[in-house]
Design goal:
Largest sheet: 4 strands, parallel
Number of strands: 7
Shape: globular
Structural class: alpha/beta
Number of helices: 6
Strand content: 15-25%
Radius of gyration: 15 Å
Strand order of the largest sheet: 2-1-3-6
CATH architecture: 3-Layer(aba) Sandwich
CATH topology: Rossmann fold
CATH class: Alpha Beta
Length: 138
Amino acid sequence: MEKIERTIRNLGKHNIKGYFVESKEDVTTLLETMVKEGEKVTVGGSQTLFQCGVIDWLRNGKFDYLDRYDENKTREEVLDVFRQASFCDSYITSTNALTEEGEMLNVDGHCNRISAIVHGPKQVVVIVGINKIVKDLD
């Protein structure tokens, strides 16, 4: 728990608000306090979001969800979702690694996640499992 507290404290030094939930099932409960009904929302490529139930939660019809995972979308339509991410109210993603100092490491095939984290959406929410918290970038 000390590692988590230290990481959240150091995120604060970078003007990033950190939260802790006990289980993956609690992730959407926290998101309900952050993402409002009717907002335009999309996500970065992330198995974490599937594992925590975030994708199903976004597909519930309460949001203007730009679904990059919609199997009916063409490649061009998916690329358009990537571009529209900059204009979303909320962008939800994960990260490849988060250091205890509050630094995120992201490797991206299309750079859409990196772009959205850096600028654009009104709110960016990064879901991080304890397995992704590391001592440092090395």
